[in-house]
């Protein structure tokens, strides 16, 4: 059984600085493996240990994305693939195209696992696009995956319901964080990960840039909320009545 | 560390949560394998990597870092002075976290002057019988293996005592100013029988072994105090930026800025000193003076930095154990593992000898 897991070297949003104009300072921001991708790697490893096989971790990004790939290898992935691209300049469809081509090039896969979305931009578009490009069934927002022979049963965590679907292999899944508890690699695994193979693929050569127009980010700004201070005076009874009145007026109640 | 230790650190300090679980997890993840060769289950990495790992752990929780530093000092002792049988028997379990170690040198009336120890070990047939009392012993009660120093007819000697042993009893946990997550108590030996093969190295050389083991441990203690200082500084810096006084952030005031500049400069100086001492140790040179310099500087520096952190926090610093615990944790280490006074004597003696 071969499993591919897609990981992103995302911006660590906890370290992201906002400049005085309210723009996130993306250049030079600290990167790390996208939080939910750890769940995706963990699930691939869990499936591998249940059925045995190989886990290939694939990322699209610049040289800095090697760090995330190495983390996946330290967690237990068998080998890595890095597809070179300027991750901040390409859109989600281009990312999905590059991942699909890389997965096809590495050989047939039984399960392709992504996370529900990256922890920096959280578009959540790549997994279904990837399934479409690969021509495979897609089970999104999985909170449980059971593979049995040539088919799989997937529990999907939807807003108000849990949907159980069955699919034949191969298929693409995106996982939610509740699916598992990602392992921490031990120091010896971190050291050994540097010996695992990482294949480099040139993104421009892998998939020719077509004439399709890319979607682009027009602006990016930190959420801001302004606070209004209102002092309500009077006796407790009067103040309470005025407070309720004000809340009703503002549509809070 | 960020997920399971740092958020719980104040609970370890308050005694609401035991460090046992996270300590074991860190050991199992290879924290103490770093500086030892692979044949005993180590990772064979430079000592400075280990010291740096303890610094990082010190930023998350000083008690766990202290507990593991002591644990590893014992592994270092066995590795340096133990025979092949002892290394094969004890090191793999100590390095992988299957067992925990404790270092028993200090006594109620004998500290840095190890030669005056009153604990005795007497050969009785194929065994040794140890009697006496050891004080302020970190990991006491939790540890499976104790590196115990006791006098034989040839002088101070070093032994491995495995717990449980009916001749070994523990006092109540001592109520400490800081490092409250780690257990510390008296260990009392009364006709504590151990196999003759548990003598480490040669009889009469125990004081020399203790000295050598402690030189390495002092580098690690320096690293630990740099870690404590770093976390106190980070918190104080964050607060200084956010706290407002007289209509502006207090970080805009020159006197606060002076504190920030000095704290950061001295933390980095402490860090460089322990890396410098590590580099001499790694190259096989005599690092005793540099290790002591690193420890004296870093431990005294961290008291100053943690004190300034309380000052920046003002009343909140004095009343919040989340802030003042850093000072309380740091306070131990100008005393433990060689007082600043004794280490200054050692530095001066060594430097005068080098000059002559």
Can you give a write-up of this model?
The complex is a heterodimer of chains A (253) and B (356). The mean pLDDT of chain A is 92. In chain A, the strands form two sheets. Chain A has a nine-stranded mixed β-sheet with strand order 9-8-7-10-6-1-4-5-11, sandwiched between helices. In chain A, strands 2-3 form a two-stranded antiparallel sheet. By secondary structure, chain A is of the alpha/beta class. Chain A has helices spanning 35-51, 66-75, 92-106, 126-134, 187-193, 203-206, 236-249, and strands spanning 2-7, 9-11, 31-33, 54-61, 79-84, 111-115, 138-148, 151-157, 162-168, 171-175, 198-202. Chain A contains seven helices and eleven strands. Chain B is α+β, with helices and mostly antiparallel strands. In chain B, α3 crosses α6 and α7 (254-282) packs antiparallel against α8. Chain B has three domains: 6-100, Butyryl-Coa Dehydrogenase, subunit A, domain 1; 102-204, Butyryl-CoA Dehydrogenase, subunit A, domain 2 (Beta Barrel), CATH 2.40.110; 207-355, Up-down Bundle (Butyryl-CoA Dehydrogenase, subunit A, domain 3), CATH 1.20.140. The longest helix of chain B has 37 residues, at 206-242.
């Amino acid at each position: 059984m071969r499993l591919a897991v897609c990981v992103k070297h995302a911006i660590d949003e906890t370290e992201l600085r906002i400049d005085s104009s309210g723009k996130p300072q993306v250049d030079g921001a600290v990167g790390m493996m996208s939080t939910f991708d750890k769940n995706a790697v963990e699930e691939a490893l869990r499936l591998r240990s249940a059925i045995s096989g190989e886990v290939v971790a694939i990322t699209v990004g610049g040289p800095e994305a090697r760090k995330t790939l190495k983390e996946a290898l330290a967690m237990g992935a068998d080998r890595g693939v890095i597809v070179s691209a300027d991750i901040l300049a390409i859109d989600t469809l281009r990312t999905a195209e590059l991942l699909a081509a890389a997965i096809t090039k590495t050989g047939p896969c039984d399960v392709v696992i992504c996370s529900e979305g990256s922890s920096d931009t959280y578009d959540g578009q790549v997994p279904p696009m990837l399934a479409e490009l690969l021509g495979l069934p897609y089970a999104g927002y999985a909170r449980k995956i059971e593979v049995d022979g040539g088919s799989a049963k997937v529990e999907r965590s939807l807003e108000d319901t849990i949907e159980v679907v069955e699919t034949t292999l191969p298929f693409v899944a995106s996982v939610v964080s509740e699916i598992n508890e990602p392992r921490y690699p031990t120091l010896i695994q971190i050291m050994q990960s540097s010996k695992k193979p990482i294949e480099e693929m040139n993104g421009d050569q892998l998939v020719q840039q077509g004439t399709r127009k890319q979607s682009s980010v027009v602006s990016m700004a930190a959420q801001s909320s302004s606070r209004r201070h209102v002092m309500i005076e009077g006796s407790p009874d009067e103040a309470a009545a005025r407070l309720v009145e004000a809340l009703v007026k503002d549509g809070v109640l | 560390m960020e997920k399971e230790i740092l958020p719980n650190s104040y609970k370890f300090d308050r005694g609401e949560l035991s460090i046992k679980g996270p300590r074991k997890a860190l050991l199992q993840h290879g924290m103490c394998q770093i500086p030892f060769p692979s044949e005993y289950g180590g990772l064979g990495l430079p000592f400075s990597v280990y010291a740096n790992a303890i610094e990082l752990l010190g930023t998350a929780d000083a008690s766990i870092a202290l507990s593991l530093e002591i644990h590893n000092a014992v592994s270092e002792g066995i590795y340096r002075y133990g025979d092949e049988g002892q290394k094969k028997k004890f090191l793999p379990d100590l390095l992988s976290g299957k067992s925990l170690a404790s270092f028993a040198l200090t006594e109620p009336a004998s500290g840095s002057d190890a030669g005056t120890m009153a604990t005795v070990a007497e050969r009785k047939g194929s065994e040794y019988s140890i009697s006496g009392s050891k004080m302020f012993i970190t990991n006491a009660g939790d540890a499976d293996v104790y590196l115990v120093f006791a006098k034989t007819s040839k002088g101070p000697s070093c032994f491995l005592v495995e717990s449980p042993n009916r001749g070994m009893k523990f006092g109540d946990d001592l109520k400490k100013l800081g490092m409250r997550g780690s257990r510390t108590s008296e260990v009392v030996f009364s006709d504590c029988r151990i196999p003759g093969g548990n003598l480490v190295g040669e009889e009469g050389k125990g004081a020399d072994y203790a000295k050598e083991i402690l030189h390495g441990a002092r580098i690690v203690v320096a690293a630990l105090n740099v870690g404590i200082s770093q976390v106190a500084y980070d918190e104080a810096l964050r607060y200084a930026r956010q706290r407002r006084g007289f209509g502006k952030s207090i970080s805009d005031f020159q006197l606060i800025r002076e504190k920030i500049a000095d704290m950061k400069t001295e933390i980095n100086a402490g860090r460089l000193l322990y890396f410098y001492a590590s580099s001499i140790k790694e190259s096989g040179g005599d690092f005793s003076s540099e290790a002591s310099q690193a420890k004296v500087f870093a431990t005294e520096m961290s008291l100053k930095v943690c004190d300034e952190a309380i000052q920046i926090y003002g009343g909140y610093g004095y009343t919040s154990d989340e802030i003042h615990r850093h000072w309380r944790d740091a306070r131990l280490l100008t005393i433990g593992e060689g007082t600043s006074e004794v280490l200054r004597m050692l530095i001066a003696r060594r430097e005068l000898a080098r000059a002559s």
